[in-house]
Amino acid sequence: MKLLLFLLFPVFSFAQSFLKLDSIAFSKQVDILVKTTGKDFVLSKMGKDQTVDYLIYKSSEETLLITYYTVKDGENKNLNVAGVKRWNLRSIKGNYLTLFPVWQKFVDTSADKDKISKEGYKMKGDFSFKELDSPVWLLRF
Fold first, then answer.
1. What is the domain extent for residue 98?
2. Is 62 exposed, middle or buried, given 0-12, 13-18 or 19+ CB atoms closer than 10 A?
3. Spatial separation of the C-alpha atoms in residues 11 and 125, rounded to whole Å
4. If you write DSSP's letter for every residue of 47-85 in order, what string do you get?
């Protein structure tokens, strides 16, 4: 039983660290994700379209798109309970070589860079890493 919990810990810790975050924790987690790419990205734009909020980071060579959504944790409109605003990461879109270190650090520490790139798709737990249009990939939480 202890071994099973030990083996499942990385999956639990990843899922917990990117869901229902307060504003400070969300900002820190996004910063960690961006730094894990190893590139010098700078926040270029924050926005919202019909269903998703997004952050666009740019470097001199490429763009990184991070999508997220917010919820009101504990909200109950029937009881006039406002709830607390929480942030949840949804996905990161960018070049394969930029996103692979994020996948390897937070989802699958034994991931094979060449194998995943040839297969074009990888799932582990609730997380997916798939090719959209080479070299652009999507890492979904």
1. 23-140
2. middle
3. 7
4. EE-SS-EEEEEE-SS-EEEEEEEEEEET-BGGGTB--EE
Residue 48 lies in a domain: yes
Number of domains in the chain: 1
List the one residue out of 6, 46, 4, 51 whose CA is nearest residue 26: 46
Q: Does the model's pTM come out above 0.90?
A: no
CA–CA dist 47, 128 (Å, integer): 24
Report if residue 12 sits inside a domain. no
Report pLDDT digits (tens) over 33-83: 999 999 999 999 999 998 899 999 999 999 999 999 999 999 899 999 999
